[in-house]
Specification:
32% helix, START-like_dom_sf, Activator of Hsp90 ATPase homologue 1/2-like C-terminal domain-containing protein, ASHA1/2-like_C, Alpha-D-Glucose-1,6-Bisphosphate, Chain A, domain 4, 3 helices, alpha+beta, 7-stranded antiparallel sheet
Length: 148
């Protein structure tokens, strides 16, 4: 059975405002996550593009911006196509002050509604699980190295 969502959570030893900046500014996104560029119009309805040389450009739409604690966007799971029904998932970050830093959670949902076979949907889940594992490690390392 295809999981409906992926959930990951980490603790970052940095203030929530700093983590928010790193999650929402294109230059920072390119440094820890996309590596080959990013564009983000940080407002509901704003465009989002995340680029990886080896994977392509992934297009999305910002759904919610509640600074400094919630960011949500819908993104296409195939390169070079606009996010739309049957090809996109919803990604939601929440940031909560926690001890001497920030607890960051990402939830990506909508895998069951994707067009395609069960095998294709399962591959998207596996790929994105791996992506968030590496991405969250990169996020923590990047933020903590900049605040040390």
């Amino acid at each position: 059975m295809i999981p409906e969502l992926i959930r990951r959570e980490i603790h970052i030893a940095a203030p929530r405002d700093r983590v928010w900046t790193v999650l929402t500014e294109a230059d920072h996104l390119a440094a820890w996550f996309t590596f080959d560029g990013a564009e983000i119009d940080l407002r509901p309805g704003g465009a989002l593009v995340l680029r990886w040389k080896e994977h392509g450009a992934f297009h999305g739409v910002v759904e919610a911006v509640e600074q400094p604690h919630r960011l949500a966007f819908r993104w296409a799971l195939l390169p070079d196509v606009p996010a739309g029904e049957g090809n996109a998932t919803l990604v939601e970050f929440t940031l909560v002050p926690d001890r001497e830093g920030t607890r960051v959670q990402v939830v990506e949902r909508g895998f069951r509604e994707l067009a395609g076979s069960d095998e294709e949907r399962s591959r998207h889940v596996r790929d994105n699980e791996q992506g968030w594992e590496g991405g969250f490690a990169g996020l923590r390392d990047y933020v903590e190295s900049r605040t040390a």
